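Hmm, what's this shape?
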Amino acid sequence: MSKMNSARYRALPRPSLAQRRWPDATLKTAPRWLSSDLRDGNQALFEPMSNAHKLQLFERLCAIGLKEIEVGFPAAAAGEFAFVRQLIEEERIPADVRIAVLTPARADLIAETLQSLQGAACVTVHLYHAIADDFREQVFAIDRATLIERVVASVAMIRAHAERHPQTSWCLQFSPEHFSSSDPAYAVQVCDAVSLAWLGDDERPLILNLPATVECCMPHVYADLIEYMHRHLARRQRLVLSVHPHNDRGCAVAAAELALLAGAERVEGCLFGHGERTGNVDLVTLALNLHSQGIAPKLDFGALDSLVHLVQTCTGLPVHPRHPYAGDLVYTAFSGSHQDAIRKGLQQQQPDTLWRVPYLPIDPSDVGRDYHGLVRINSQSGKGGIAYLLEQRGVRLSRRHLIDFSTRVKVMSDRVAGEISSEQLWQFFLNCYGTPTQPWQLQDFELSADGLGIDLQMCHVGQALRLRGRGCGALDAAVRALPRPLEILAYSEFSLESGSSARALAVIEGHGEGAPVFAIGIGENRVLASLLALCSALNQSEPAHQPG
């Protein structure tokens, strides 16, 4: 018998909203965006990012076009404080980017947070306090009036600091935490008290952020709540109305879209929906949804595969192969009827005309993908068998690598005109992607004590080279040391045998000289294997090299 008892739960009531307007609204422009990858996304990780990884991700967020980035929770940990200081002291923040930091409404933590911002040019102090009755009664044990007094005192403290430091451009953001499970009339009272305390005669901006801290209602109910606030807040024209949907019910993207129809002007979220529990709203999906409707998202995801690789490297979290827009398989059709429809659509699609290809909501080239090769290869037989035989040796290739190898196997099978055994397939795999002796050879290497630097002794066409680099690990440091560009899009490693003496197999997918490259290396340890794979990638990107 099932132990699920649905009677223990209830749907949140919809707010009283006469003649709601959002169902008839139309989106025409993208919202303001804030990335919380470095704060909410980082807090969600089993092992939080190193500051080196956070800096890498921060720089990529800026390059994508994000102008507001929440960079941490300075009072939460020494590393968080140090990262904020690093950004400011090393002048890493572009002039058109506003950083944000989070603090609860506690005087000691606010003071530490403000200390972390000393010398910053343009900042948002993100103040939060839970206002839901469950929290107020069970966690804080205070009445509604006392809660408002506590929040207003915190706002006054931040405002006084801002007035003492006019050289910094200050913005206050207030989040009534657990907003979507709160009494909306009380939420208006709290937010009005905040705006009254912060907004004077000056133009110092205020953001009111209305989070679904735990997603607990259907998206249309969240939209009602946002429209209720939009219509009832005092000083509305001087406020920026923001939303921060979480994904506990799997509806964060839908909730954000309806919230924008209901009056929200700004969205907070993470790349690929990272964040605590089931994550936040996915900025990539939401932005590309707008793109698919003819609305410029004002964010550049034209190199989506590279972004996926960076986020996976920095966070340790995978992006699902069926993830909207970004997954390895989302532009791959396995059904013959789907492939036929897509082919015909692509044949009739004219450049710079409205996109009308069946099964493809956007042109894959918009995000740096090429669908044509995937269709052709998927129509060939034997790919599933190739993957199976490699997996018997403990090797699982990415979809793109498997497609490349399947093409080579097809040519080989046509040449031999017969069955290819498992051993023949394995040797062919090693020949196609393994390390040839020319033109690049690895002679020796030495890692620095912290594992982030490398000293390479290499040979190129008989010429000895000594290369040095630093990065986020041995492979990243080696790539940075190279005298020619090679972008690593994906990296994986496998053990070829069991036991302590097992050899390592490293697999690299990248771009060299503008062309895709797939390479492997086998070594006594994973560092050696990765460097041999790097040599193979360099050799395969040489125009004169013909693998296989």
